[in-house]
Write a structure and sequence with these properties.
Distance between the termini of chain B: 106 Å
CATH architecture of the largest domain in chain B: Orthogonal Bundle
Number of helices of chain A: 1
Largest interface: A-B, 21 and 21 residues
Strand order of the largest sheet of chain B: 4-3-2-1-5
Number of helices of chain B: 8
CATH topology of the largest domain in chain B: Helix Hairpins
Number of domains of chain B: 3
Oligomer: heterodimer
Structural class of chain B: alpha+beta
Radius of gyration of chain B: 34 Å
CATH class of the largest domain in chain B: Mainly Alpha
Order of helices and strands of chain B: HHHHHEEEEHEEHEEH
Number of strands of chain B: 8
Shape of chain A: elongated
Strand content of chain A: over 45%
Number of strands of chain A: 22
Order of helices and strands of chain A: EEEEEEEEEEEEEEEEEEEEEEH
Chain lengths: ~270, ~280
C-alpha cells in the first residue's frame, strides 16, 4: 500500500523514528525505560513530504515540544494507527450550496486525522496527536445550549476525480437526499466522525464509512444512516481502525437535531453591543 | 451502681435506675450520631455519583439533620421527658429566641431560598460584592467561597439574596472582548481582516459564534474598536492571553501601529523653541 504510515514499528534501544504527515512532524525515541514523543508543527512547509516511521539518525531538532513516558520495561514494538477526530466536525462550505426539492447530492469531504501511538500487550493508548488541529466551534441554537465541535472550512467537492490524495486526511462521502418541497440549504453540515471507522484504499487514501442524510417532508430534522463498510467509490479497502465511540440508536435521534444547519445559531444575540 | 453514685456524691440527686437511663440515653445519642453521619455520607456519595455536588451536599445534610432530630427526641424520651410538653415549651422558646436572633433567622430563610432558586451551585465560580471565587458550600447561614488567591470567604446568605451575583460558569461559552486602538493612518478594513485572521488561526477561538468587530469611535489618539471572540468557558483564560499576544504580534508584523496618547508642549508661540537655560549648581561653581 502506498504511503502507509500506520502499523507496527520495531524500535531498537536508543532508536528514533520519524513521521511527517502534512503540517505535523513527529519523532518517537525509545530507551529501556522511557519513550519520548517530540512534535513540531510546520503549516507553511512542504505538505507533500511524507515520512512514514523512517529511522532517524540525526538528533531530534531543538524547537520541538517533547512529551516523555516512563515505563517499567519499554517494548520493542509500538503500534501507530490513524484515528478520526475526537469530536463531531462542522463542515462549513466556502460557497453555500443547495439540494433542490426531490433531488439528491453526493459530497466528498476530507477531514484531518489523528495519529495514535499505542503500547502492545495489552494494547494501551500512549499518545495522540492531530495532524492538523481544527478550530473549535459551537453547534447549537444559542450560546446557552449546543455542542463543542471542530470547524472545517472546505470547498465541498462533488466529483471524486478532483479529490487529491492526502495521507493525513480521511475522505467521507455524504449522500444527501431532499424529500421535501423546498430547497435544502447546506451552509453547515455536521459530520459525526467519532462514530466512523477508517479504511485504507490501495493508493494510501483513508476513507470513512459513508453518511446518508434523508430530509423528510416538512421536517427540519434529518434521518442519518452510517454505512457499514467502506464506500464503493473507495475501491478495494482494508479496515485499519474502528470508531472511537459506538453510536446508540437513541442517541442518534437526539444528537442530530439541527444537523443540516437549518437551526443555525441565531444571529441576533451576538450583535447586541453593550 | 449505688457505690458509684455514692463515690461521686450523687446519690441525693438521682437513683440508680435514673443514672442507668442517663447512661443509656447518652450511649444512644453518641452511637446514633456516629451512625447518622455514616448513613448521611453514604447517601451523599450515592446521590453525588448520579447527580451533582450540590445535590450530594443537600442529601447528606438533610439525612443527617432528620436523623439527629429523631435521635435527640428519642434521647429525651429515654430520659423521661414528655415530648408533647417539650414541643409546647419549644414553641414559646422559639418566639423568644426568634426575636433575639433575627439575623440568623433571616440568613436561614435566605439560605432556603438560595437552595430553591439555584442561582449557582457548589463548584460554580461567582462574583458577589466584589469577591470572585469558587463556591465551596451553600449552608443554612452562609455561603463559603475560595477566591483565586486561595482565601476562604464566608458570605452571609442574607447579603447574597440582596446582592447582585454574577455566575461566571453558568453558560458553556464566554466572550473575550479585546479593546484595541490603531493609528489614524491605518486602513480600518485591513485592520478588520487582520483581526479576523488572528481569530481564525487560534484553535481555541470558536469559529461560530463568529468573532465580532465593533468600531467604537474616533478617540483622542486612536481609532478605537472592540474585537470580541468566543471560546469555551474552560479555555477563557488561555484564550484571553493568547488573543492579546497574537493581536500585538500580528499588528507588529503587518506594520499596524497601536498608538498611545502623545503630549506636545509648546509655549504659545508655535515656531519658537523652548528657551533652555543651563544652571550650574553651587557646589560645582
Amino acid at each position: 500500500m502506498n504511503g502507509a504510515w500506520w502499523g507496527q514499528f520495531e524500535f531498537a534501544a536508543g532508536e528514533t523514528r520519524a513521521w511527517r504527515l502534512g503540517p505535523l512532524e513527529l519523532w518517537i525515541s525509545r530507551t529501556p525505560s522511557e519513550y519520548r514523543v517530540a512534535v513540531r508543527r510546520d503549516p507553511d512547509g512542504d505538505l507533500s513530504v511524507l515520512r512514514v516511521g523512517d529511522p532517524w539518525t540525526e538528533p531530534v531538532p531543538d524547537d520541538v515540544e517533547t512529551v516523555r513516558y516512563g515505563v517499567r520495561d519499554s517494548a520493542r514494538r509500538l503500534e501507530v494507527t490513524p484515528a478520526t477526530a475526537d469530536r463531531a466536525v462542522i463542515v462549513k462550505a466556502e460557497s453555500e450550496f443547495f439540494v433542490p426539492p426531490g433531488d439528491a447530492a453526493t459530497a466528498f469531504i476530507s477531514s484531518p486525522l489523528w495519529l495514535r501511538v499505542q503500547l502492545p500487550d495489552p494494547k494501551r493508548l500512549m499518545h495522540e496527536e492531530p495532524a492538523l488541529r481544527p478550530s473549535d466551534t459551537w453547534f447549537g441554537p444559542s450560546t446557552l445550549e449546543g455542542e463543542l465541535c471542530y470547524a472545517i472550512r472546505t470547498n465541498v467537492r462533488f466529483d471524486l476525480a478532483n479529490l487529491p490524495v492526502r495521507p493525513y486526511r480521511a475522505v467521507s462521502i455524504v449522500r444527501i437526499r431532499n424529500h421535501a418541497d423546498t430547497s435544502l440549504p447546506l451552509a453547515r453540515l455536521r459530520l459525526p466522525l467519532p462514530y466512523l471507522s477508517l479504511h485504507a484504499g490501495e493508493d494510501g487514501q483513508l476513507w470513512t464509512e459513508s453518511v446518508t442524510l434523508d430530509r423528510k417532508q416538512d421536517d427540519e430534522l434529518a434521518e442519518i444512516k452510517l454505512g457499514k463498510t467502506a464506500p464503493r467509490e473507495a475501491g478495494k479497502c482494508v479496515k485499519i481502525a474502528g470508531p472511537r465511540e459506538e453510536m446508540e440508536k437513541r442517541h442518534l435521534i437526539r444528537s442530530f437535531t439541527g444537523l443540516l444547519g437549518l437551526r443555525k445559531a441565531k444571529e441576533g444575540y451576538e450583535r447586541v453591543v453593550e | 451502681m449505688n457505690g458509684l453514685l455514692s463515690s461521686l456524691g450523687l446519690e441525693t440527686l438521682m437513683t440508680a435506675e435514673q443514672f442507668g437511663n442517663v447512661l443509656r440515653a447518652l450511649l444512644v445519642l453518641i452511637v446514633g450520631l456516629l451512625l447518622a453521619r455514616l448513613v448521611a455520607a453514604a447517601v451523599g456519595r450515592v446521590v453525588g455519583s448520579r447527580m451533582g455536588k450540590q445535590e450530594s451536599m443537600l442529601a447528606r445534610r438533610g439525612v443527617f439533620y432528620i436523623l439527629a432530630v429523631l435521635l435527640i427526641a428519642s434521647t429525651l424520651h429515654q430520659l423521661g421527658f414528655k415530648l408533647g410538653v417539650l414541643l409546647g415549651a419549644a414553641g414559646i422558646v422559639t418566639v423568644a429566641v426568634g426575636f433575639a436572633s433575627q439575623t440568623s433567622a433571616s440568613n436561614l430563610i435566605s439560605g432556603l431560598f438560595l437552595i430553591a432558586e439555584r442561582p449557582f451551585v457548589v463548584g460554580d465560580f461567582i462574583t458577589v460584592e466584589g469577591t470572585t471565587g469558587e463556591v465551596l458550600s451553600i449552608d443554612l447561614l452562609s455561603v463559603k467561597m475560595r477566591t483565586f488567591d486561595n482565601l476562604y470567604v464566608r458570605v452571609p446568605n442574607e447579603s447574597i439574596i440582596k446582592a447582585r451575583i454574577t455566575n461566571l460558569t453558568h453558560f458553556p461559552l464566554r466572550r473575550v472582548d479585546v479593546k484595541v486602538g490603531v493609528a489614524y493612518k491605518e486602513d480600518l478594513s485591513r485592520v478588520r481582516d487582520v483581526l479576523r485572521d488572528v481569530a481564525d488561526a487560534n484553535p481555541l477561538c470558536l469559529d461560530e459564534p463568529e468573532p465580532l468587530f465593533i468600531f467604537k469611535g474616533y478617540g483622542d489618539s486612536a481609532l478605537e474598536m472592540q474585537f470580541s471572540v468566543w471560546g469555551k468557558r474552560e479555555n477563557y483564560l488561555d484564550l484571553l492571553n493568547a488573543i492579546h499576544l497574537e493581536i500585538k504580534a500580528t499588528f507588529d508584523t503587518n506594520g499596524i501601529e497601536i498608538p498611545f496618547p502623545h503630549r506636545t508642549i509648546y509655549t504659545g508661540e508655535v515656531t519658537k523653541p523652548f528657551p533652555v537655560k543651563v544652571l550650574e549648581s553651587e557646589g560645582e561653581a
